[in-house]
């Protein structure tokens, strides 16, 4: 896959398409997925959403979870096809069951906003925390936000601080506002507990939960 990605990074999309097509024809799932994105966006090849879908489906069938998520985005955003929230959700849920953080985050956004799903802040909080445990920076931010603002359940300043700190360490600058708030709002005892948990979560992220 290296030649294809190297060409893509340089903006040589036609070269990337040729490299990925050779592997895709051999059933290489990551190459199928990568080539599908080129057809989806018309980069180095004529834009062809049906060919993109075919390649995403093939990559999904060959076991690539990310391809399931990409199929969900096709139908969620209506990329060359009619928007189909039910179909998109099915793909996102399948990828989420397989542990893909991006799909867990997407389902959280849908539950929080009500776009394509029933609005349910509690469910959104659950999805965001599951994605956060997989080190998804924006999910860590949203988990912190919901825990701070009492959306979807009781507030938890300690874990709001923990997830906010982890998000900020992962480059999400908006998380700083949350940690500044929680830093002031917590008692000294809560602050000490937050620091203890933050250390543990940095070491064992998958077990970090309130």
Please describe what this structure looks like:
The protein has a domain at 124-210. It is 71% helix and 0% strand. The protein has twelve helices and no strands. The longest helix has 16 residues, at 188-203.
Q: How would you sum up this structure in a few lines?
A:
With 210 residues, the protein is mainly alpha-helical. It is built from 12 helices and no strands.
Topology diagram in text:
Layout: H1 2-9, H2 13-24, H3 29-41, H4 49-61, H5 65-77, H6 85-97, H7 101-113, H8 121-132, H9 137-149, H10 157-169, H11 175-185, H12 188-203
Helix pairs in contact: 1-2, 2-3, 3-4, 4-5, 5-6, 6-7, 7-8, 8-9, 9-10, 10-11, 10-12
Q: Count of DSSP E strands?
A: 0
**Shape label:** elongated
Low-confidence stretches: none
**Mean pLDDT across every amino acid position:** 96
Radius of gyration: 20 Å
Largest sheet: none
First and last CA, distance:
40 Å
> What is the helix content?
over 70%
Number of alpha- plus pi-helical segments: 12
The amount of beta strand, in percent, is under 5%
Structural class estimated from helices and strands: mainly alpha
Q: Would you list the SSEs in sequence order as H and E?
A: HHHHHHHHHHHH
Offer a few descriptive terms.
mainly alpha; elongated; 210 residues; 12 helices
